[in-house]
Design a protein that fits this description.
With about 280 residues, this protein is of the alpha+beta class. Helix content is about 25%, strand content about 20%.
């Protein structure tokens, strides 16, 4: 087949494009991946979208012997969104599980201790998944918005127990893709707790529906400076710091950590908050 023509969009441009474009392929689910390589360091050293798309295409053709770049969509650290292999063409994303799929590659290495996802990329990942769900009448659930890590090398789904227990990682049955720190982790439990709710909120916002009610408490930072992290645990990167005596809104509390954003993975240790 002829090689794809790449198109790079801002989030607003991509929103307009996906809403106004007609597609013919039957789409039944969305795959989420991370590139691993190229990573943030690569992009920061050479922030050229088309350069990296052509580089990935070269690897996919010359090393993996595919006909073209594998993914339908690439989302960059700066939040720009590229359409790669056309949406109407089946991707090369999860071997044995590509029929009916759209493949999203998120540039970066999102394993714990590696790249800390930028807010711009995070927002574009949520936006892209939400727009695709709306466009193709999908729902953010374990059947229709999936991670590469959940499938074996023949394209068969692992059991939820295998995925959630960490057995897939421990036994090296599949890559960690989209990363062990991707929106809090790469298990089904993580997706249901941290990723799907954000997509649902964005779907409602895009459709003009009111946001669901949230039980919010107000607490004060009781230490000199409080680290805000991208997940529940000190293994997650610091996204910002809050000075002492600041009053914060707490939207969720879990495992000794408090989420202080209504729509972002921003967590602080509950130990350093008081009523």
């Amino acid at each position: 087949m002829p090689l794809s023509t790449f198109h790079v969009y801002s989030p607003a441009e991509f929103t307009n494009w996906i809403r106004s474009t007609a597609f013919t392929r039957n789409i039944t689910f969305i795959q989420n991946h991370h590139t691993f390589l190229p990573s943030y360091q690569n992009f920061n050293n050479h922030a050229d979208h088309l350069f990296w798309l052509e580089s990935m295409r070269s690897v996919h053709i010359n090393e993996r012997h595919w006909a073209d770049i594998g993914q339908n969509i690439t989302i960059f650290p700066d939040g720009f969104i590229a359409v790669c292999r056309p949406i109407d063409k089946t991707p090369a994303g999860i071997f044995g599980a590509n029929t009916g799929a759209i493949c999203i590659e998120n540039m970066g290495d999102f394993d714990i201790g590696k790249d800390v996802m930028t807010p711009a990329q995070r927002d574009s990942i949520i936006l892209t998944n939400a727009l695709l769900c709306i466009k193709f009448d999908l729902r953010p659930n374990i059947a229709q918005v999936v991670y590469h890590h959940w499938f074996d090398r023949a394209g068969k789904r692992f059991t939820a127990q295998q995925i959630n227990s960490g057995a897939v990682t421990q036994q090296q049955l599949q890559k960690t893709c989209p990363g062990t720190a991707f929106f809090g982790g790469n298990t089904i439990i993580d997706a249901e707790a941290n990723f799907y709710p954000l997509i649902n909120t964005k779907i409602n916002a895009l459709n003009g529906a009111p946001a669901p009610p949230v039980n919010i408490t107000h607490k004060k930072v009781n230490t000199t400076t409080l680290n805000v992290r991208s997940g529940r645990g000190t293994q997650f990167g610091i996204v910002r710091k809050i000075p002492g005596n600041t009053i914060v809104e707490v939207f969720e509390e879990k495992d000794g950590w408090s989420r202080i954003s209504s729509d972002k993975e921003e967590w602080v240790s509950s130990t350093f908050l008081s009523l």
